[in-house]
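Researcher: We are triaging several targets before committing to wet-lab work. For this one, the compound of interest is zinc ion. I'm pasting the protein sequence and the ligand SMILES. What I need is the predicted three-dimensional arrangement of the protein with the ligand bound, expressed as structure tokens, so it can go straight into our comparison scripts without reformatting.
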Amino acid sequence: MSERAAKPKKPTKRLIASLRKQLEEERSELLAQAASLEADAADESWKEPRSDDDAETGTATFERERTMSLARNARQTVIQIDRALERMDAGFYGRCINCGEPIAIERLEALPQAVDCLDCRRKAERFR
Ligand SMILES: [Zn+2]
């Protein structure tokens, strides 16, 4: 009995269902966001010379790079969400992809796309 109590809680089906809904909503928002950012970045009208001012061209280039990096981040998060959804389908959701230990419920609630535990995440970030 005491052994059972010591085990970390696993996410309930109900929690997983609500996190799945959250992830799916976030996923479609991010996809729309990425598409519109990419459309902005692909718009090359900024290249047309408006003036001889180099500073203006520099700002436009900077803006475009910023837009593209935002789009990349959004796509990256979509990939993470897909991975979490796949793990939900496979029944592995809530287990660390690295060590297999349960991921803290609080972590899943704060970051539903998390597929690794906090310990593994910290280690990965240290080695980056
Ligand atoms: Zn882990």
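Researcher: Any quick observations?
Model: The two ends are 41 Å apart (CA to CA).
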